[in-house]
Amino acid sequence: MASSSSVSFSGVGSGIDFGVIRDAILTQKSRPIALMQNKASDYTTRIDSLKQLNTALASLTTAAEALTNRDLGTGRSVTTTDATIAAGTATSTAAIGGFDLTVTRLATNLAQASRSFTSTTAAVLADGATTATFELRKGGAAEGVSFTIDSTNNTLEGLRDAINAKNAGVTASIVDIKGDGTGQQLVLSSKDSGAAGRVELVETTATGTATGLNIRSLNPPDGDFTRLDAEFSLNGLTLNRPTNSVTDAVTGVSLTLKKVGSTTIGVTQSTDIESKLRGFINAYNAIQDIVVSQYKKDSKNRPTGILAGDPTMRTVQQQLRDAAGASSTDNGGAFTSLTEIGITRTDDGHLSFDSAVLNDKLKTNPDDVKALLFGKTENDKGLFQKFHTASNGLSDSVTGSVQTAIQGYESSLKHLNETIAKRTESINNLRISLTKQFSVADAAIGQLNGQGSSLTSIIKSLQGNNSNS
Fold first, then answer.
1. pLDDT the model gives residue 213
2. 3-state class of 259 per DSSP?
3. pTM over 0.70
4. Cis amide leading into 220 (omega within 30)
5. 190 and 326: one domain?
């Protein structure tokens, strides 16, 4: 018989802790869910690690593809001893070498101004004239874009608007010289620089209106339009150009003149092969960093990485190792391996680069270096066509080996989570069912306990009456 101080369940004292019994049953039933949750966590970690690996592989694929560009090594770089005076670029047609550049004058735009008018609405037509025709002539041409001033636009503002409406390579504006509205001048600014870019206002009628406008040159102040051109010398040879962008002075070289002064321009072989190789090596070593991190050992000498021993990781390791160490015998050149241009593999699988070796080979055997990279001709295959094929086969976002593995784990994870959800729902339903059943049992046993106590009291009462008699 249970004591009256026993723990109750659902508010009725039965003397039995049905909550403990129920929770023990639920814990036992939930163990498979806990195992599945651990497995789901493992899948999630593998997916994240494989995605990190695939991102690094995609970068390697891009870097390998860049080294299949047949224009590598044909470019030119331009240097200058004073970039504030001039800058430049060059194409493969530029000769390697250098020249002295002296800028004595920059190209500028023609600026002109009229006499002062008392207001912006003052008439511009000469006395007695009712109509005057003008042309905007560019570069000293004999003809230009024409317009008319008559009674509809015979003001300084009207002349300004008529010029701007023609969009003939010049901008007209009105400047208040005195600042009190009584010194209004028409200012014409040519949009293009140089004598060839200048635009002049010419009257084609004999009204005297142009004479009355009294347009004068502000730049150049002496009216010598040749002074609008840039003037510079290359190795002592004086040249003039209408703009500060000079593309036709030195074959393959484009210059941008910035200010008056002297500098030395150098044309050198482009370093694009070295920079592209460095990009490839950095991308390759980033993958090796991931591999090495997976195989770091714990205190029991076991690999700590989730992908240690993973078949996809092993495939990546093997294929990249094979590609980096491959021999190229069909590239059409004399070199067959990366070691010949200064790229070697370290003990931990990383690539090491000796740029001095590469630069020496580029000086002595440039065509063989290019052949090793991307083949001597279109029909030849260099190392990096093969490397790109291998890397792309691993990293392709649809059919790549790593993406296939990711999709496999994602499919398993989805199925596992669905199973966990169903099992969890089943456990919740079992909890509800057990709670109801044990509540009923608890109440029944509690009722029996109450009846037993009443019966005990009756018996004791009867025993007391018998003893008195």
1. 97
2. coil
3. no
4. yes
5. no
